[in-house]
Sequence to fold (316 residues):
Amino acid sequence: MWKVLMPKKIVFGENAAKEFDYPKNSLIITTTTPEVYNKWIEYMGITNYEIYDKATPDPAIETVEQIQKEFEGKNISTYIGLGGGSSLDICKYLSKITGIPKILIPTTFGTGAEMTTYAVISFEHKKKLLQDEAFLADAAIVDPYFLPGTPFNIMRNSACDAAAQASEGYDSKIGNPFTRFFCKEAFDILEDAIINDKHELLPYGAMLSGIGFGNSSTTLGHALSYVFSNEGVPHGYSLSSCTTVAHKFNESIFYERFKRICQKLKFEPLKLKQPLDEAADVIMPDRGHLDNNPKEVTKEDIIKCLDEIVNGNPLA
Ligand SMILES: [Zn+2]
Fold:
């Protein structure tokens, strides 16, 4: 048997965020600056709201608790996460502890976070991937309106993340016909969007990828990538080489196609400060990703993959 979880309501397309009927007295949580979000809020037509705009990347549990305290007693009806992955993650965690519903509106398109039961929150400066049904959005709004303002680098990292998630999710051992259907469709769309410069298709591809991998899992590529993230490499960028090498190791049907996507996005090779053996020790306990990998992975395999990532020019 298998089970599928999705937001209660998914609204997609042009004007989706504009035409949505927002509840009164909601709390908008965002990572951007007033000159950007004021324009967004005007487009969305929200007039009755509170705002928290001090969200930062890699949100810590302290931030979540501080927002809870700051807005306690203000009768907030709904949280609205508006921005990149971190504003959505804050909303997910807040909503779990307060029981207040949440509307998630991504503006960078790639993580698919608005579709999933996952959230990444830092505890004592360590990023933790959490999963909880309470993290599911009450409504997810995907509107390409937000795309044109996205800087190239963020667009490229998000696109790579979405393609990595779709293809790793397809190969995941806990996948099923439903997740493979969504992951395959997502990858086809993302590939077309990237290779043929049809960037307006990215939000749709990323959304489908979120539904697909969100109900299976990512695998070796993501497991390898975290040692690079720990050294400050953006998530999507670290996946360019990591997922390519992981797909080769797994003999994935997506190996050549994923590599071509990364070549098109012109990702540079990765470097690692940490010795490979130590990095492998950090990766090995990540059972959530490794146990779902289609092939069994030993520590020696991990070291070989890391060596190919940093010394083998895998995107050439
Ligand atoms: Zn990812």
Remarks:
- The mean pLDDT is 95.
- Residues 161, 165, 218, 222, 235 surround zinc ion (CB under 6 Å).
- The two ends are 42 Å apart (CA to CA).
